[in-house]
Amino acid sequence: MYSVRGAITVENDTKEEILNATEELLKHILDFNKIEIKDIISVIFSCTKDLKSVYPAEAARKMGILHASLLCLQEMFVEGSMEKCIRILMFVNENKVQSEVQHVFLKEAKKLRPDLMKEFF
Question: What per-residue confidence (pLDDT) applies to 115?
Fold first, then answer.
């Protein structure tokens, strides 16, 4: 088992933007790490306190992630932290060395962990 991290930001707190951004992030995580949906154990989604229009897990279900456990949480607020951000922590049932994992940070969230990102964009 291994875990994959990711994050993306949205411009506005709308259902459409949150679902589209979550789907974009999930697709990149799956593609870059060659993850099959059947191997996903669980996904934890967190959102900053300014995002409240929809649960990001709805995007995962729409993509066919039907048997993994999904949980949505509000990110801990820290003064001066990034706004309008969706974060993902995915657990995958596959043998891979953690150092081989490609974490994905998109849009403004690239600033969060530049040390974990390879240049794909």
Answer: 74
Tell me the binding residues for prephenate: 5, 87
Mapping DSSP to helix (H, G, I), strand (E, B) and coil, where does residue 96 land?
Answer: coil
- Evaluate if pTM is beyond 0.90: yes
Q: What is the pLDDT of residues 78-100, one digit of tens each?
A: 999 999 999 999 999 998 998 89
Candidate CATH numbers 3.30.1360.120, 3.90.1150.10, 3.30.1330.40, 1.10.3210.10; the one for domain 2-113: 3.30.1330.40
Binding-site residues:
5, 87
| 44-65: average pLDDT | 98
Composition of the chain by helix, strand, coil, percent to 5: 30, 25, 40
